[in-house]
Write a structure and sequence with these properties.
Length: about 80
């Protein structure tokens, strides 16, 4: 863990590189980025309702399990 002297040096370097205006806006921007990342990760774990609907075929849909049955109907 850096001591107080190291933190002051890092803060001075940040002020020189970014300036006061950018540092002032960096906190809220960083917070919103973290919130967005957390939301994206939690949404990724949940299945979408459309995907679950596509996985189960409807009862009214005809499934072709026996190709010979289609040939018999044509005759």
């Amino acid at each position: 863990m850096p001591g107080p002297t190291e933190l002051i040096i890092i803060l001075i370097i940040l002020l020189v590189v970014f300036g006061t205006k950018k540092l002032k806006n960096m906190g809220p921007d960083l917070g919103s980025a973290i919130k967005g990342f957390k939301n994206a990760v939690s949404d990724e774990d949940k299945p979408e309702p459309d995907e679950a609907k596509d996985a189960v075929p409807d009862a009214g849909e005809a499934t072709d399990l026996a190709p010979d049955a289609a040939d018999k109907e044509k005759s």
